[in-house]
């Protein structure tokens, strides 16, 4: 590349960065016509909310075929039992497999409820789905806390 092409490229990059900064500054300027922060919340109420961990996992589970969800449930339970029995000190790793099993169980129950062909099983499937949520969240928290305890165990006296 010649030096004039390098200079042109550098000028282009500088202009691009300046435009991006200008757009960010314009986006950060609050609307002076609003009377309170609550008004801004009310005006944003019609917009779609930001995705959460739960909405992302739900969307992924709903897009996954039943076979992988059943495999996640089965192998999550089996791995949790095997690790729990073979290495009880790695309980936090077994909890990770429990959360995997809960994810698969939630996905299967949600799919069954969405099909509309559940009849009298609706209450049982709803309870299974709620139990899977509670169990999965508790197991995920146990994984985080157990991993932190394992990683920082020598530092805390």
């Amino acid at each position: 590349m010649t030096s004039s092409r390098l200079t042109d490229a550098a000028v282009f990059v500088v202009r691009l960065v300046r435009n991006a900064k200008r757009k960010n500054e314009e986006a950060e300027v609050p609307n002076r016509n609003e009377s309170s922060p609550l008004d801004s919340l009310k005006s944003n109420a019609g917009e779609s909310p930001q995705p959460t961990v739960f909405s992302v996992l739900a969307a992924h589970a709903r897009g996954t075929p039943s076979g992988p969800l059943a495999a996640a449930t089965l192998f999550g339970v089996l791995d949790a039992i095997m690790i729990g029995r073979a290495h009880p000190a790695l309980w936090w790793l077994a909890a990770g497999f429990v959360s995997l099993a809960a994810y698969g169980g939630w996905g299967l129950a949600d799919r069954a409820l969405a099909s509309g062909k559940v009849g009298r099983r609706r209450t049982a499937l709803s309870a299974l789905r709620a139990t899977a949520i509670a169990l999965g969240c508790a197991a995920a928290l146990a994984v985080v806390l157990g991993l932190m305890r394992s990683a920082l165990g020598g530092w805390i006296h």
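Residues 122-152 form the longest helix (31 residues). The mean pLDDT is 80.
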